[in-house]
Design goal:
mainly alpha; Rossmann fold; Histone, subunit A; 2 domains; 3-stranded parallel β-sheet; two-stranded parallel sheet; 14 helices; globular
Length: 305
């Protein structure tokens, strides 16, 4: 795991030269075909060195949910381990990592009819009435949801109406634990200025590699638009706006770099909250020796156990 431009791809390939791994991409943008330069997608040569999964599996007009990722990743992890290989999950989409670690509650989709009925009850009797109803059927949810929170009150009551089971019980039943021994590694430059310099350098390289031409091809298709998750990816969103004459090229690059820095900051904030992860500094250079030494120690401890 790590923020953008931290060297995750290079480290994964180095690990693959030492251990029998297959790589599962944990990146919400790498799933899309035709989006190679702006996502820093591993090259064909890099992907030929070791099997890669969840890359180039969707058209940019498709939508890929967190639930779909979790289902695909768990299936692949099972397949890879059945081949006596090690699944190596590599990426920076923290929401995907979170879904694997904590699971997703199997809650029903919204029901317009029930929501309209609850709206009528709230209008006629007030939110205190809905909260008392929730206390009767789901006291645990009622204890954490304030009587002044209509949206969450409505959702908890809706789930109970649809399933006959308290929402708190459904959440508690979520299978959060992975049936695997997991080693969490975080790769990041420990100095912020190093990461910022890499992000800026990456954009210069992307531009030299034809990033704008890549986005022009998406635009020329005619079926892509700015509200698609693929087009809203960092970098693509700013390039799309530039090609629609919202601002010039220099401004586009500046905005893209700023947005990428902000994304990296969010990634690091999430990573710092991971209590069971070990950090390696990629600022001075790729810490291949240190990471491999750590991994071998972990694998040896497993063998002894």
């Amino acid at each position: 795991m790590g923020p953008t431009a931290s060297g995750k791809t290079e480290l994964a390939l180095a690990i693959a030269r030492e251990l029998p791994v297959e790589i599962i991409s944990v990146d919400s943008a790498l799933v899309y075909c035709g989006m190679d330069i702006g996502t820093a997608k591993p090259s064909a040569a890099e992907r030929s060195q070791v099997p890669h999964h969840l890359i180039d599996i969707l058209d940019p007009t498709d939508v890929y949910s967190v639930g779909q990722f979790r289902e695909d990743a768990l299936r692949l992890m099972s397949d890879i381990t059945a081949r006596n290989k090690i699944p190596l999950l590599v990426g920076g989409t923290m929401l995907y990592f979170n879904s694997l670690q904590r699971g997703l509650a199997d809650l029903p989709p919204a029901d317009a009819g029930i929501r309209q009925q609850l709206d009528r009850e709230a209008a006629e009797y007030g939110l205190d009435y809905l909260h008392k109803r929730l206390q009767q059927v789901d006291p645990q949810s009622a204890a954490r949801i304030r009587h002044t929170d209509p949206q969450r009150l409505q959702r908890a009551l809706e789930v109970y109406e649809l399933t006959g089971t308290p929402m708190s019980q459904l959440i508690a039943q979520t299978q959060a634990n992975l049936p695997y021994r997991v080693i969490n590694i975080v790769l990041a430059p420990f100095q912020r200025k190093v990461l910022h310099a890499r992000i800026a350098a990456r954009y210069q390289q992307m531009m030299a590699n034809g990033f704008l031409d890549e986005v022009r091809k998406l635009l020329a298709r005619g079926d892509c638009h700015e509200n698609l998750p693929a087009i809203r990816a960092v970098g693509y969103r700013q390039a799309w706006a530039h090609l629609h004459d919202e601002y010039d090229q220099a401004t586009f690059i500046e905005k893209a770099i700023i947005a990428t820095r902000q994304m990296a900051k969010r990634q690091i904030t999430w990573l710092r909250a991971q209590q069971n992860a070990i950090w390696f500094d990629s600022g001075p250079g790729l810490p291949v020796f240190e990471v491999m030494q750590y991994l071998h120690q972990q694998l040896q401890s497993d063998d002894k156990a």
